[in-house]
Amino acid sequence: MSPLQFCLIFSGVLFSVGLAGALARSNAILVLLGIELMLNAANLNFIAFWRYGPASAPATGVIFVIFSIAVTAAETAVGLALVIAIHRHQRSIRLQEATRLKG
Amino acid sequence: MNAVLILIALVTVGTAIAAMAGRNLLHSVLLLALAWTGVAAFYLWAGAEFAAFAQVLVYVGAISMVVLFAVLLTRRSRDEAAPGPAGQSRALSAVMAAAAVAGVLVGAILRSPLAASPGPAPAVTVRQLGAELMGPYAAALLAVGVLLTVALIGAVVLAAGDRTGQPEDNP
Amino acid sequence: MSAAATTSESFLERAPLLLRDAVTGFLPEPARWLANSLLSIVAVLAVFGLLFAFLTLAERKILGRVQNRPGPNRTGWFGLLQPFADGIKMLTKEDIVPRAADQLLHFLAPVTLLALSILTFAVIPYGRHLVPVELDSAVLYFFAAGAATELAIFMAGWASHNKYALLAAMRALAQLISYELPLLLSFVPVVLATGTLSTTGIVAAQGGWKWHLIPHWIVFTPWGAAGFAIFMVSALAESNRSPFDLPEAESELIAGHLTEYSGFKYALFFMAEYFGMCALSGMAVTLFLGGWQAPLPVLEFIPSYVWFAGKLLTLLLGFIWIRATLPRLRIDQLTRLAWKFLVPLALVNLGTAAFWSLTSAWSGPLQLLRWAVALVLVAGPFLLLGRGLTAGLGPRTYRYA
Q1: pTM recorded for the entire structure
Q2: What is the ipTM of this complex?
Q3: Does 1.20.120.1200 match the CATH number of domain B1-76?
């Protein structure tokens, strides 16, 4: 197993853990964190290919990760604001109970 | 492949699993902060210094803080106390689905002819990154700036909600 | 610690390197690198540990003099052994953990806080050849490690299982997050002007003198002075120092997130607070006050680390002086100061710095214009925003006093 393959497996396992969390848990915050973990796994792949992959422009992988981190920050802010809004309306953040679109 | 990389991978995946399986929401968030630090350690190991510190600054410094705030603000609901039988079967199917995804991914990775280029890590200085961001990626940088602003305003509007007529708003 | 010293430098300048080589010189190459790293860790810990001890003494002495009392003077000569007596007292005190507390987090919080605040010492250039770790993005590393300390404060408040501690932790988080912004924004102009994120690079960019008199320190430009002021105010708030010590205002709000901590764990928190203060002051010296550079060419014979120590101690005494002088703020005043005053000022300051570096080629009478525009850009928003901040607040009349 080459280092690149190890890094990719690492990120694949991390992605699956995030996926399991996002699917299994009913708490909205934990679901959001699971998605966060999946995004991190994707970033890991960018760095892995940047480090070991075929030579490309020297900074591409890092720049992708930087943009990805910025987008994730925006995603988390909006996601948590939604969670708080749901909690204000329903007094609960269980996703099963958030069945109404009307606020 | 060296011991440091294996250690980083084990710690990151281990804390992530513990966070996703944990009963205590706050412990989950703190464990995830550790997992994010592990990812940052991987970036550092791979030589992407700037990305590693940005990861710590954004994830451990900012995102985990916001998540903790959200946890405390929504703590009244004792949700995770006792998952019913429906929750357990759902958890089981979720774990199976994730395991299937992991199996497919690992199998595909192991079969594909991925030869690592043996060379050293591509050296990239902060100055280089800045030049790239201001040159070829300037449009993307602007778009991200707009996105962050819009997201920030949207989050404030969503979370603040309709608060007219509450007496404590007027000191 | 890196870079071979050129022999043209004075003996004192090279003394730390010579000392290090004398200790580890006989080792083979990989072991030597390890030994050097360990040695710099030990040196940083010893120096800042002692600085912490005597800083607490100096603080108590100075506060005492300001309040017209002698301060601690019973242990040792003039109270010089007081810090060690305090340390022994803290070590022998009973360590009480509430039964309902989250035992693991209750223990981990002070350890994490102290570890993270020690980590920040790694990238500060203490002298010409005295940088423990040279990083290309050292400033980012410093603030990343500093940002992570907030997590430890939250852990302390939550693990105590005490409503006052939890409330105080929320308050502390609100304060720390608010002041993180101006702190980060105030150093961005420095990075803009010097074109580097490495601390050694920033210090090197501030070398040299204008007319052999005025050093090229960043604080001697209009935007640099404004940035330094914003940085120091935010640093006061980030290190929980008076007048921003709301998280643990022990005379009014019990002791905030420290309520359930006693004995040596409390001492660890105390130590972390002082370490954080030292690290932020060290970063302020590096970013704005020219690091280890001497203020005048004729004074260059004094070794660089002495200059760094002098500037650091000046800033630390300033911290103590401010604590002795200013009363505590209310939480709404505190957050308003950050969001409505410091953040906009820091953003405007970024524009001022951009103007300054765009007009660096101007000379002659244009130079005067450059200074005038920059000063207006610094002073105008300050006056306007300051007026908005204090609007409606007249001088208070004391009717029954």
Answers
A1: 0.87
A2: 0.88
A3: yes
